Amino acid sequence: MQPFIYQRAETLEAAAQAAAASRGSHVEAPVQFVAGGTTLLDLMKIDVMRPATVVDINPLQERYGAIATDDKGLRLGALARMAQVADHPSVRRDFPVIAQTLDLAASQQLRNMATLGGNLLQRTRCNYFRDVSWAACNKRNPGSGCAALDGMNRKHAVLGTSDQCIATYPGDFAQALVALDATLEIAGPQGRREIAVQQLHKQPGSTPNIETQLVPGELITAILVPSAPWTRRSLYLKVRDRESYEFALASAAVALDIADGEVREARIALGGVATMPWRAKEAEAALRGRRLDEAAAEAAAEAAFAGAQTHEHNAYKVPLGRRTLVRALLDAARLEIRS
Amino acid sequence: MSIAAPEPKANMGRPEPRLDARLKVTGEARYPSDVPVGNPLHAVLVTSAIAKGRLDRLDTEAARAVPGVVEIFTAENTRELKPLEYTPGGGGASTSVQGLGPDIAHDGQIIAMVVAESFEVAREAAYKVKATYAREAPSASFGAAGLDEKPAGKEFPKAGDAAAALSAADVVVDAEYGTPTQHHNPIELFTTTCVWDGEHLTVHEPSQFVYGLKNSVAKRLGIDPAKVRVVSTYIGGAFGSKAQLTPRTPLVALAAKRLGRPVKLVASRDQGFTIATYRAETKHRIRLGARRDGKITAYTHDGREVTSRPDAYKVAGVSDTVRLYDFGTVATSVNVVHADRNTPGFMRSPPVVPYVYALESAMDELAVALGMDPVELRRINDVTKDTVSGKSWSSRSLMKCYDEAAAAFGWSRRTAEPGSMRDGEWLVGWGCATACYPTHMAATTARVRLLPSGEVRVQVAAHDIGTGAYTVIGQTAAERLGVPLAAVTVELGDSDLPPGPVAGGSTTTASTCSAVIKACDAIREKLVRAASTANDGPLAGRSPSDLSFTDGRAVASDGAAESVADVMQRLGTAALEEYAEYIPHGVQQDGIRKLYSGRAAMTGGPHGDKIMYALGAEFVEVRVHARTREVRVPRAVGAFAGGRILNPRTAHSQLMGGMIWGIGSALHEATEIDPREARYVNDNISEYLIPVNADVPRIDVIMVPEEDAEVNPAGVKGLGELGNVGTAAAIANAVYHATGKRIRDLPIRIEDLL
């Protein structure tokens, strides 16, 4: 870990100001925000991130950490802790997919610390990225190459990859938000703006070092999840090497509106298989207006992975991803929804 | 009594809680890096980013410029470290005694050590040390170019004409199996603190062999071993990784000497993957031939094991697997495959984990080929005379274990057809396998002192690596001298104490307790003589055989008694102290002398007059999701026989922990090696998976009573390394039963079953 200046931001404006002079991409900026610290501090200890200044935004929690619900939907303060949201009765009842993505992530200790904003921005677990002794990593060191392309890439992505980077987006929560068309409130040096969660992350393309469309100094302040007929018939299925405390090899967040046996609307996002939270619109389209039987689910899964690109050790993620989605869809269709 | 503290059965002691339990759960137990030393400096290692080649340049300028950096040790200023010869199974591996360059022989070789006023400064500076290399293409493992494969020895177990028996067999199984690299990953990292007092060095380091470390560090530093003391009171997990010299210790000692201050090193988790040892990859070809009625007529096993370039380290578990059944004929071989890796080493049950996995998988394949219940196949081939040597067993309770475990598991409800036990979306599979571990005894000493108050002090430089050694050694002395356990103080893990065995080979309980018994008996003899030969005492004239010791008194069968305090008064002494040496049958008489010089002398297993093994039977249920193919193990039952069980609580814990490890070795554990660079990739415990609580819902451990007076005076077989043997095979066999797919390479992963 390199020495850094620690500041506490008592107001949003102070936080923005502290970061105003920052340059480069959001993750490379010399000023970084810390909330739960469950990602940033790890990456600083292993020399992957070397901010000159760390701005502690925990004092903002009271103002930006609340959970509120009304007819229009759910409003989650970005500084709410994962455990707090996962345990919220309205979230559990009306947005089960959100509660499940949080419950199935990390460990209880981490969920007690990590905030929603930080969770969305967590960085890849690619071992070549997280170990600075590997010279080739375009994400860490643009233009240096990618050791994972021909390396140990069993856990790497098959969707949204490029010839520069195949690192998997590791989170769970973002998949629920992407599936439910959630939006983000963002504050920054240039003022406030609102974007779809779907717009937050970027595919690696030729700039894997740019992970989101946030600019230095911008902070996510709130997450808005609209009410919709499909939020209650929703779930998250996470398939992994062990039962708990492990990232997904493949996961699916699904939300369905089924009436008279027919799918009126389907919302699907995939995790563990893509470089960013992956909305599977082709799969959704394949289901609309159909009965959700095995054949329909398989057709949707086929569509979801039509563009997959595999490497030496991760080809299994295509069949596994398809099966995960099929299982999630059939499980969601069987849910009994009490009004 | 509870699950954790089972009711003792025949030939079992009391399930006493660990003497160190409270200290450990309250954080009062001081592990070596917790021991406070005056004004220490802090060291951080820098390791190589290539596996083969030369260090061209090491730029330390930026690192030296960090305020608080005191010195940086490199190849340049550490040349005075002396060479040390590699001895298989002891000493330091060649890759542990190499210099800090310029030659690089494996990934993560230490190339520098930064010493600074604080850990944080040292770490910051360590990242600023820049190395440039002349890299050569390394050979990582099986299948790579440039490997060097050789027979691992001249002779391996053989009996009769296995080739002929195979060609005459009604049924033949011919299959290949593989196991991956595994790392011990003890929670306590590899730490070393060195303190000099003039010419005398004290090393605080978690060690499974303080006398070994003392002597090898002294040799490497070129000083008299008598001037080195190693202290290792508590050890936070070891599993074999802390049994030998690693490169860090002499380096830290040298730094402390040079800088005139204590130096403390806590190596990082990823460095632990390359500065210590590991369980090497293995491959196996097995052929089993049998008659239609299930009688095995031939067993061949050809093993291959990865090792480093310089050292032919091998585990060669065929010398154990050939004992397991009545095979008729046997032919075995073991090759080592030299690659650009550091030298592998002991890891819990080194020979038997991979080799028994392969054999017990093949046994299941044979049962399937014969259409026979796998338990019955083992019953038909149960052995009384060893196929290879013709020796008989000191005791053997394998089928008792099978029968008890099968009954507890409900095995009779199993339907044989793969996939036939489906439960909704989950395919259910039941499998079983044999666990075995050779009963080893090592030469050891012990010193026991009894005070008139009844207080007892036991001293031996043995090691409690989390197994409960403090407790069972204390129980043995308490029982022998007739005092409560609370009156016994046990001191271990300090090379200033009389030498104890390496905490390896599951020898500690059997050996140390045998020495403690000997010392206690010498004390008893003095007491008995004093009490019975006195003119006026209550026990005057009694025959020694009539006297026993209980509640701090010598007691005759008719109830006449005299307190130990009074007997000692009669002797005119304030303390009775005895030093005893235990040399197990089969160890040469210079075994104790060797032990003092840091060399372990061990015997047992197949090497004595009798075949001596602890045995067990493990049954598991697996569930494989019909669609997404996750494998889970909702329950496992193991029944084990290990001679006398001194403490059912600590034994239960060892066996249960072993089975959990077995689940991990079947489904989770594997160190991934980048084949281009021969470098470990998942070198952290986020990506190197072991089971979490949710992966082990239910483990039932049954201890089967067994008496064996032949193994050693304590009657103990040693079971620290028994529980994790066979589990992986039981799981692989259960996965076959669930899915019809035979997975022969570990770990079994989702992609194998899609």
Topology diagram in text:
The complex is a heterodimer of chains A (339) and B (754).
Chain A: E1 5-8, H1 12-18, E2 31-34, H2 40-45, E3 53-56, H3 61-64, E4 67-70, E5 73-77, H4 82-86, H5 89-94, H6 96-103, H7 108-113, H8 116-120, H9 173-179, E6 183-188, E7 191-196, H10 197-200, E8 219-226, E9 234-239, E10 250-259, E11 262-271, E12 278-279, H11 281-287, H12 294-304, H13 317-334
Helix pairs in contact in A: 6-9, 11-12, 12-13
Chain B: H1 21-26, E1 41-47, E2 53-59, H2 61-64, E3 69-73, E4 103-104, E5 110-116, H3 119-128, E6 130-135, E7 148-151, E8 158-159, H4 162-168, E9 171-179, E10 191-197, E11 200-204, H5 210-221, E12 228-231, H6 248-259, E13 263-266, H7 269-275, E14 282-290, E15 296-307, H8 318-321, E16 330-338, H9 352-370, H10 374-380, H11 398-409, E17 426-438, E18 440-442, E19 444-450, E20 456-459, H12 469-481, E21 488-491, H13 508-533, E22 547-550, E23 553-556, E24 561-563, H14 564-571, E25 576-582, H15 591-596, E26 602-604, E27 613-625, E28 631-641, H16 648-667, E29 673-674, E30 679-680, E31 699-703, H17 727-739, H18 750-753
Description:
- Chain B: Pfam families: Ald_Xan_dh_C, MoCoBD_1, MoCoBD_2.
- Chain B: InterPro entries: Ald_Oxase/Xan_DH_a/b, Ald_Oxase/Xan_DH_a/b_sf, Ald_Oxase/xanthine_DH-like, AldOxase/xan_DH_MoCoBD1, AldOxase/xan_DH_MoCoBD2, AldOxase/xan_DH_Mopterin-bd_sf.
- The complex is a heterodimer of chains A (339) and B (754).
- Chain A has 13 helices and 12 strands.
- With 339 residues, chain A is α+β, with helices and mostly antiparallel strands.
- Among the domains of chain A are: 5-58, Uridine Diphospho-n-acetylenolpyruvylglucosamine Reductase, domain 2, CATH 3.30.43; 60-121 and 172-226, Uridine Diphospho-n-acetylenolpyruvylglucosamine Reductase, domain 3 (2-Layer Sandwich).
- A 5-stranded antiparallel β-sheet of chain A has the order 4-5-8-6-7. In chain A, strands 9-10-11-12 form a 4-stranded antiparallel β-sheet.
- In chain A, strand 2, helix 2 and strand 3 (53-56) form a beta-alpha-beta unit.
- In chain A, helix 11 (281-287) packs antiparallel against helix 12 (294-304) and helix 12 (294-304) packs across helix 13.
- Chain B is of the alpha+beta class and 754 residues long.
- Chain B is built from 18 helices and 31 strands.
- A 7-stranded mixed β-sheet of chain B has the order 3-5-1-13-10-11-12, with helices on both faces. In chain B, strands 7, 8, 9, 14, 15 and 16 form a 6-stranded mixed β-sheet that branches.
- In chain B, a hairpin with a 5-residue loop joins strand 14 and strand 15.
- Chain A binds chain B through residues 1-3, 45, 47, 125, 127-128, 131-135, 147, 150-152, 154, 237, 239-246, 249-250, 316, 319-320, 323-324, 326-327, and chain B through 47, 49, 120, 123-124, 127, 270, 425, 625, 627-630, 632, 667-668, 672-674, 676, 681-683, 686-687, 689, 691-695, 749-751, 754.
